[in-house]
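Re: the 118-residue chain
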Amino acid sequence: MDGGPQACPITPVLDIVFSRWTTPILWTLNRFGRQRFVELNRNVGAITAKVLTQRLRQLERDGLVVRTYHPEVPPRVEYEISELGLSLAPLFAALTDWSEEHLPEVEQARATFDATGS
C-alpha cells in the first residue's frame, strides 16, 4: 500500500473475516463454544490439521479467538471465540438473512445466464 486512501475501506475487514476458513471456524466456535483442537477440526470438517493450525494462529493474532493452554499430562489446549469475535455475530446474522432472501435470485440469475450461453 502507498499510504493513500483505499478504493474500498472494508477491504481489510474482508481480508480478516472472510478468508477461506475464518468464517467456518468462527461460526463453529460460536455455535459449539470452547473446543479442543480435535473437536474443532471435526466440527469444521474438510479442513486439514495444518490449515486449521495456521488459521487458528492468525485468528488468535487478530484477537478473534482465545487459545487456552492447560499444563496437564497430557497437555490440553482449548479454543474459544473472543468478545471481539462475538462482535461479528450481527454481521454473520445479516449475511444469513441476505442469503435466505436472495440466494434463490442468484441461482435463478446464474441459470438464466448459463442457459443463454453468455
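The first strand starts at residue 35 and ends at 36.
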